[in-house]
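User: Fold this, then the next.

Assistant: Folding the first:
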Amino acid sequence: MNAIGIRQVASKINLGRSTIYRMMAAGKFPKPFQIMSNRNAWIESDIDKWLSEKAGKPFSGVSE
């Protein structure tokens, strides 16, 4: 299991940070968890699953 930060998430899905935060606020994107008081991260497989759903492809559960 990998935890990735907002820069990696933005790069992986090819969207800007503000777009990601807007989608999260609308309930359309996975929310991060708090690693430390000022540090959030996402589970990479959650992002991969979201991408698979958007692409209409089955999620294999394995990160590339």
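Now the next one, as you asked:
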Amino acid sequence: MKTQGKNVAGPAVERLKPERVQEELTFRRPVRSREVRERLSGLPGWKAVSRSRSIRKVRKFADPQDAAAYAAFAVQVAAGRSPALQIAVSGGQVAVTLHGRPDRGITGALLDLATELG
């Protein structure tokens, strides 16, 4: 690119560090069922949905408004991420289900999202 007879370099290319590339790869692979059980044991209330590639948690709140606020929080946290989020709100109860993709199942990213949701 030239500007008034001078050469101007284009945008700088950012190189990824090998460890960043490796981290990205680890999130994409399916997590083995043993690893899923181990991670879920450290996530109070989260359970694998039988015959599915999903995990679920039901939370009870004393006030329906608190339940609605938590549901809104869950939607905001999950926005733009690959795991599909399903929420059911009934009175003071919120059921959150995180669905893994059929080709990947339950991934590290899905379990990380469950950790953030509490």
